[in-house]
């Protein structure tokens, strides 16, 4: 089967997850062509031979919050170039003549599938928001944003025959969506699976910041001088006291994650899922106005895997680290992810080889 696979470029979770899914499909004899933007395109090109790069929409952040206005203005200015690149990619998609389209929150391949009448399969994490039910205490003060978030997510997946949703928590699927929705454990890339489950043993705390520019982060880390922090995502490198900032490197990040005693991050599903898989207690500080990250963070706390707080705070961080051994004990008592066996069985059912 010829599969056109679209991958969103905002955040690396889409790319790392899609590489695992695509690797399984390729091993089953399917032929794939990717359409991807941003860092996802470079990541996939290093692993697969056929990647078409487009320009995707980009978010702008300010002080730990999604800047809606700045994001709109930024993308309007890029729109002529985005459309020109999309036109060339559209011709390449036509030439590939796919039998199936898979989307990880990518609008380009969704539109191509709809206009060409090709079946569409969605594999991502966002559908847990619109295809599952969440208790009011999880939604919290963000309940007012549930409707708009669901509307956006549904618009990004209209027309899919099935939705495969990766999640470390398993809320009930809405009855109206049950027949076309399957939840699978967090998709674990091979590099993570090979680490086993080292648990919380480690000499440092790993910190990853999705949204650059939150000036409170480094102050919160310096307020805990007895701890050593290794930080990714702040845009520069160097060591000052107990804080080491590093430029992103796949191998370096994996090594630091494996050797961490706890993880401090925003609320992206991929890193939270990897931390849970590895048995690392998590402090989640979700990007404000990012609905899915806020819900993920509350589930981390509800499951006893760690804590969440609305913004970086030195005293709260120190208190979390004191309680981290109790969260590690809870994680170690939780059955480990199945190394993608459930995912593989679901893909084999939905994407037959004949």
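Sequence proposed for the structure above (354 residues):
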């Amino acid at each position: 089967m010829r599969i056109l696979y679209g991958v969103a470029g905002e955040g690396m979770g889409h790319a790392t997850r899609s590489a695992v899914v695509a690797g399984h499909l390729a091993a089953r004899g399917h032929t794939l062509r990717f359409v991807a933007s941003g860092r996802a395109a470079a990541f996939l090109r290093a692993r697969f031979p056929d990647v078409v790069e487009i320009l995707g929409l980009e978010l702008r952040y300010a002080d730990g919050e999604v800047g809606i206005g700045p994001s709109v203005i930024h993308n309007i200015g890029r729109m002529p170039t985005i459309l020109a690149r999309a036109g060339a990619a559209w011709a390449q998609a036509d030439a590939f003549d796919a039998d199936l389209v898979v989307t990880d929150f990518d609008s380009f391949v969704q539109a191509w599938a709809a206009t060409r009448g090709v079946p569409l399969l969605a594999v991502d994490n966002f559908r847990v928001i619109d295809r599952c039910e969440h208790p009011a205490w999880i939604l919290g003060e963000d309940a007012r944003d549930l409707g708009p978030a669901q509307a956006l997510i549904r618009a990004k997946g209209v027309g899919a025959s099935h939705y495969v949703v990766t999640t470390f928590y398993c809320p009930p699927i809405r009855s109206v969506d049950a027949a076309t929705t399957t939840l699978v454990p967090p998709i674990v890339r091979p590099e993570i699976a090979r680490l086993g489950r080292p648990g919380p043993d480690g000499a440092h705390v790993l910190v990853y910041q999705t949204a650059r520019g939150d000036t409170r982060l480094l102050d919160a880390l310096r307020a805990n001088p007895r701890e050593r922090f290794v930080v990714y995502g702040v845009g520069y490198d160097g060591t000052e006291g107990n804080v080491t900032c590093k430029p992103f490197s796949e191998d370096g990040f994996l090594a630091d994650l494996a050797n961490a005693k706890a993880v401090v991050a925003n609320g992206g599903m991929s890193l939270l899922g990897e931390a849970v898989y590895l048995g690392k207690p998590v402090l989640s500080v979700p990007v404000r106005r990012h609905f899915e990250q806020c819900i993920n963070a509350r589930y981390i706390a509800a499951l006893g895997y760690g804590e969440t707080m609305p913004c970086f705070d030195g005293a709260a961080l120190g208190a979390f680290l004191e309680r981290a051994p109790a969260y590690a004990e809870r994680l170690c008592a939780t059955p480990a992810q199945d190394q993608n066996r459930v995912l593989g069985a679901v893909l084999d059912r939905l994407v037959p080889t004949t």
